[in-house]
Amino acid sequence: MGMLDHHERRTIGSTNKWIISSVQPDRDHALLTVTGMLDQESAAELRQRATGLLVAGARYLVVDLSQAYGAHPGILGLLAAASRRLTARQGWLKLTGAGPAVMEKLDEASLSDLFTIYRAATCRGDNGVDDASGSECVTRHPVA
Known about the structure:
CATH topology: Transcription Regulator spoIIAA
Structural class: alpha/beta
Strand order of the largest sheet: 1-2-3-4-5
Number of domains: 1
Shape: globular
Largest sheet: 5 strands, mixed
Oligomer: single chain
């Protein structure tokens, strides 16, 4: 299968404080990378980009925050919502590189979002096994 149109799409914030890159090498897999400040503007772009990847059919999404700093209050809700949508498709979201600012936002997150983000942060994408518990990351739903 060929590369999709938005392969290696990059957006640079108007303040040049952040860059969000997305790669979707095939229909099912995608990577979002955030570099720079996670502020209101970058969180809105991240939401738009994640939604676009889900609409394009991504089922397995890695969000790399290792080069990001700061944390907009809505970032965990955004990631949790994307993770729930992917789980409903029998996919997953893998969160990597969440720094101290993102981790501090856990105090403000709902219990449901906390569990979702925990699973996204501890789930390994390569074999679908939770690093912490050894159980499957994705709840499999029987097909009727």
